[in-house]
């Protein structure tokens, strides 16, 4: 297959990028994810941070208060990122290697999000 015929991140990523501040309660993060039917948000406080449904579920399972617990308390830090020109096969390999389900897309700044669901839908 010709490399130019293969799907790139820019064709599949979710945009516009959904964000949340680190000082917001996790209940607000859960509300935004539910409202937008997404499973991760980029955290604007800090560099390379996201909060996912899994982060929030773990906090609730631990008995943490959803109004008192802040996004910064549960967010995933130092998240790997991808560029819009990366091939979907490369993204699948990265997700497998790093054991993650979400990768922010960066092109000088955050421009979107790619999820394992996006990858599966595209490559199947």
TrEMBL record:
Protein name: CBS domain-containing protein
Keyword Coiled coil annotated: no
Protein keywords: CBS domain
Lineage of origin: Archaea, Methanobacteriati, Methanobacteriota, Stenosarchaea group, Halobacteria
Keyword match Ribosomal protein: no
Entry superkingdom: Archaea
Annotated source species: Halorubrum aquaticum
Domain CBS: 13-66, 75-124
InterPro entries registered for this protein in UniProt: CBS_dom, CBS_dom_sf, Diverse_CBS-Domain
């Amino acid at each position: 297959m010709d490399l130019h015929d293969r799907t790139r991140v820019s064709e599949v990523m979710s945009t516009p990028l959904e964000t949340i501040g680190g000082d917001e309660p996790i209940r607000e993060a859960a509300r935004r994810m539910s409202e937008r039917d997404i499973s991760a948000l980029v955290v604007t406080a800090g560099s390379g941070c996201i909060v996912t449904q899994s982060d929030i579920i773990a906090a609730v399972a631990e008995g943490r208060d959803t109004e008192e617990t802040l996004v910064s308390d549960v967010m995933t830090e130092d998240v790997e990122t991808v560029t819009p020109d990366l091939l979907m096969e490369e993204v699948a390999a990265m997700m497998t290697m790093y054991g993650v389900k979400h990768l922010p897309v960066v092109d000088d700044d955050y421009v979107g999000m790619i999820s394992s669901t996006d990858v599966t839908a595209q490559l199947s």
